[in-house]
Amino acid sequence: MKARWDIFCSVVDNYGDIGVTWRLARQLVVEHGCDVRLWVDDLRAFERMCPDIDVQVGQQWQEGVQVRHWPAEWPGAHPADVVIAAFACQLPPEYMDRMAECERAPLWMNLDYLSAEDWVVGCHRLPSVKYKGVQKYFFFPGFRPGTGGLLREAGLLERRRAFQQDAAAQQRFLQSLGVAPTAGARLMSLFAYENDGLAGWLDVLAADGRGTHLLVPEGRILGDVQRWLGVNSLSAGDIQVRGALTVQVIAFVRQEQYDRLLWCCEFNAVRGEDSFVRAQWAGRPLLWHIYRQDEDIHLDKLDAFLELYTAALSPAAKAAVVTLWQAWNADGDMAQSWKMLLEHWPEVSQHAENWCLEQGLQADLATALVQFYESWI
């Protein structure tokens, strides 16, 4: 019989949480033959990346996954063989009691946040707390051997490489989004949280000797873009030109479309966790806007990734990448740091591809989870 999996997702930051769990649920079904229920407490956030969702229905099937609404009053359900609490969310008390009543307790895992910090390797797969005799385990995604790896569907890198080598396919895809890149311009994407440093970056792009066509999916950064442009509102389809910079707003798209958008661009600014990983699989230079945390502890996480990511770069190229990322996440000088990066563009571009291929040698996250379950039973 197929293993039954319950994945619980409490939507905290609109799209990152549900983005990761939705990808994971589908991969477990398609590639590993699992029976998956995805419990989501905010179906409206889910609807943005899966428009077929009916937010009024508490139980429905989407792409082979049973999607269940997780309301304030628990509807009741028998626990699965494997239970995943995504990003340390708290399971419903009634469900936890039912786990304790099972003749054979399920494998209960806390799928934690992605981090490159050294301590993650030592904590991966360690037992955590117990609840009435049911043991919970830590499971950490990561970039190093000894972690759970990254979400990566079978054949993803081969599909990406073929797409990037097919100019006609890229053109057709961009046309489907209403995008006709400015001739000779650098195509870039911007998906970020609110950021005071954006104005300085857009200033230098507008004054650059080479044009930039900037694609901005609808999201939280749009207000900052509007202020810089001096317009009252922006919506999908709008195009504004300032000097060498063309800004185009595009609609929020499905995950598969967003992947291809990243593959089309020469540079991608991304945020959170899901888009951060997908930008790495694009094999193109990127800029990560990490989710801000109290007392700036997120900067430790940022520095840990930068130390790992830039290890193979020359000292000058490493300094350029680190300076840009730190400026973007700590209100630094984006104009000067962007100019520094452009000076090392060929090396940084090749490094992005090398990093992608290196990470692709590790087991993917879904496979690592299945292997842990198989060894546990």
UniProtKB/TrEMBL annotation:
- The lineage's top-level taxon is Bacteria
What the entry lists under InterPro entries is as follows: EarP
Q: Name one GO molecular function term.
A: translation elongation factor activity
| Keyword terms, alphabetized | Elongation factor, Glycosyltransferase, Protein biosynthesis, Transferase
> So what does this thing catalyse?
dTDP-beta-L-rhamnose + L-arginyl-[protein] = N(omega)-(alpha-L-rhamnosyl)-L-arginyl-[protein] + dTDP + H(+)
The protein's job, in short, is:
Protein-arginine rhamnosyltransferase that catalyzes the transfer of a single rhamnose to elongation factor P (EF-P) on 'Lys-32', a modification required for EF-P-dependent rescue of polyproline stalled ribosomes.
| Similarity field | Belongs to the glycosyltransferase 104 family.
Q: What is this protein called?
A: Protein-arginine rhamnosyltransferase
Taxonomic lineage is: Bacteria, Pseudomonadati, Pseudomonadota, Gammaproteobacteria, Pseudomonadales
